[in-house]
Amino acid sequence: MIVGIEGKVVKKEPTLIHVKTNGLTYEVFVSINCSSAIIGEDVKLYTTQILKEDSNNLYGFLDINEKTLFDTVIKINGVGPKAAMAICSTFTPSSFSQIVETSDIAMLKRVPGIGPKGASRILVELSGFVLTNNDNEENNFGENASAAVMALESLGFKKEQINKALKTCTQTETSGIVKEALKKLQR
């Protein structure tokens, strides 16, 4: 699984870029927000790789919160990578979190390809959606917290429970966050 890519941008379009690294060029789909933030040739992206019978696609993100948003939204039944990228192109992770918090169906319907039924399903499924990294926190903590969330999800805990536990964690390293969160989740 490819989880990150670093290299030179050799082609840039609004929703995809070509990144050349070690003699190979990868096509990476990005949101419009991410594409407009890429300035210069050198780029380092977090990626989500989606393998299907007929395709092998990479989706890239400059911001770990945008990756978290994408990864969370594509798990919802009926929402694929195209719709998830449309959400990432329309909203920042923090504004999307606010939309979910206030259950604003009208705002969510502004995303191309998402109607009233899809919007309400997304809001119901993501009722506990919380970003693990606020803009004023250190970026490294957000990356470690995201890794901790994935580890705890793989152990079978629900995202909502994990987010509640992480709000009170004081550790900053991934292993410390996981240990502290496990203690809180097992109570």
Ordered list of secondary-structure elements with their pairings:
Elements: E1 4-12, E2 16-21, E3 24-29, H1 32-37, E4 42-51, E5 56-61, H2 64-73, H3 81-90, H4 93-102, H5 105-108, H6 116-125, H7 139-154, H8 159-167, H9 174-185
Parallel strand pairs: 3-5
Antiparallel strand pairs: 1-2, 1-4, 2-3, 4-5
What are the key terms here?
187 residues, alpha+beta, OB fold (Dihydrolipoamide Acetyltransferase, E2P), DNA polymerase, domain 1, Helicase, Ruva Protein, domain 3, 3 domains, 5-stranded mixed barrel, 5 strands, 47% helix, globular
Quickly describe the structure.
The protein has 187 residues and is an alpha+beta fold. The protein has 9 helices and 5 strands, in the order βββαββαααααααα.
Describe the structure.
This protein starts with a strand and ends with a helix. 47% of the residues lie in helices and 20% in strands. It has helices spanning 32-37, 64-73, 81-90, 93-102, 105-108, 116-125, 139-154, 159-167, 174-185, and strands spanning 4-12, 16-21, 24-29, 42-51, 56-61. It is built from nine helices and five strands. The chain is of the alpha+beta class. Residues 133-140 have low confidence and may be disordered. Strands 1-2-3-5-4 form a five-stranded mixed beta barrel. It has three domains: 4-61, Beta Barrel (OB fold (Dihydrolipoamide Acetyltransferase, E2P)); 64-125, 5' to 3' exonuclease, C-terminal subdomain (DNA polymerase, domain 1, Orthogonal Bundle); 139-185, Helicase, Ruva Protein, domain 3 (Orthogonal Bundle).
